[in-house]
Design a protein that fits this description.
four-stranded antiparallel beta sheet; globular; alpha/beta; 230 residues
Length: 230
């Protein structure tokens, strides 16, 4: 269980100081698939960054099974990120001088995972294991980034607009792949997206506006990536 209590985040100083998160309180159940919706500037990406430990909160608590990461020092938060969470972003952030195998191995090495090539096969890239990022399509690069994140064997996978740079066909394929891997591996998944249709795939849906959660709902019937509108 991830428990977020009265979370506040500010950027800037003086007259330009801007409160981006305004007292967010939220619980995320183990193995949930949560989608966070909201317009640009609503605070959804900042929320993702804070609860995943990429950024620190100015006020409030973020607890994983009762352990407050807001109280951790730099060494502890680095260890937490390495051992607990994985990240997938809109921009793939692959190392251009490393091939598919070595990009994924970077994540695997953090967890001592010697069986990471099974993930490369799972994302459908076994035949391109020696290819470099510039030799891959956008969808293939995103699949590499997914494999790299999961090679860490994270407890929670955070995704920030993972289909934002993809066309519809590729976006659907990537979403279906992520959901299949979650079902197989049992990690918790939190995804930020502008695409409201993707929310139909989630168990839990959060709507943010101006730094606050304005709606939370659960889907009784979830759709697959190929059933939603685009």
């Amino acid at each position: 269980m991830i428990k977020i209590e009265n979370l506040h985040k500010f950027y800037g100083t003086g007259e330009s100081r801007n409160e981006v998160l305004k007292g967010v309180t939220l619980e995320i159940a183990d193995k949930d698939f949560m989608v966070v919706l909201g317009a640009s500037g609503s605070g959804k990406s900042t929320l993702l960054n804070v609860i995943s430990g990429l950024e620190s909160a100015d006020m409030g608590n973020v607890c994983y099974d009762g352990k407050n990461i807001s109280d951790m020092n730099d060494t502890e938060i680095t260890r937490f990120r390495r051992n607990t969470v994985g990240y997938v972003f809109q921009q793939y952030f692959l190392l251009q001088n490393l091939n598919v195998d070595k990009n994924v191995k970077m994540g695997a090495d953090l967890a001592g995972n010697t069986e990471y090539r099974a993930l490369i096969e799972a994302v459908g890239l076994a035949d391109k294991i020696k290819k470099y990022p510039y030799e891959l399509s956008g969808g293939e690069q995103q699949r590499v980034s997914i494999a790299r994140a999961l090679a860490k064997r994270p407890r929670v996978l955070y995704l920030d607009e993972p289909t934002g740079a993809l066309d519809e066909a590729t976006g659907r394929m990537v979403l279906e792949l992520i959901c299949r891997l979650q079902e197989k591996m049992g990690f918790t998944m939190v995804m930020v997206t502008h695409n409201q249709n993707i929310a139909e795939m989630a168990r839990t849906v959060i709507l943010m506006n101006s730094g606050r959660i304005v709606e939370q709902r659960c889907n009784d019937k979830r759709k697959s990536a190929y059933e939603i509108a685009w």
